[in-house]
Design brief:
89 residues, mainly alpha, 30s Ribosomal Protein S18
């Protein structure tokens, strides 16, 4: 009995294996300064617990990852962003 292709069930979709190339959004958009007073923008680089996301996930270049981390630390120090939380987003 031949197995037809439409009858095959996958645990995950085979199309998920295709990944897009990561890029530094700062270089692409021409952003030169990371503002520590903009919490909505900084939340893109922080996970639900308030931890910084690494470069391999965000796609930032080393230069801008350092600037983002410094801006998040400054925002935490000024109580714009929390240090630790359960559900930040």
């Amino acid at each position: 009995m031949a197995v037809r292709k439409d009858n095959i069930k996958y645990l995950t979709s085979p199309a998920i294996a295709i990944t897009q190339k990561k890029y530094c959004r700062f270089k692409k958009l021409g952003i030169r300064y990371v503002d520590y007073k903009d919490p909505e923008f900084l939340l893109k680089f922080v996970n639900e617990q308030g931890k910084l996301l690494p470069r391999r996930i965000t796609g930032n270049s080393l230069k801008f990852q350092r600037r983002v981390s410094q801006a998040v630390k400054r925002a935490r120090h000024l109580a714009i962003l929390p240090f630790v939380t359960d559900l930040l987003k």
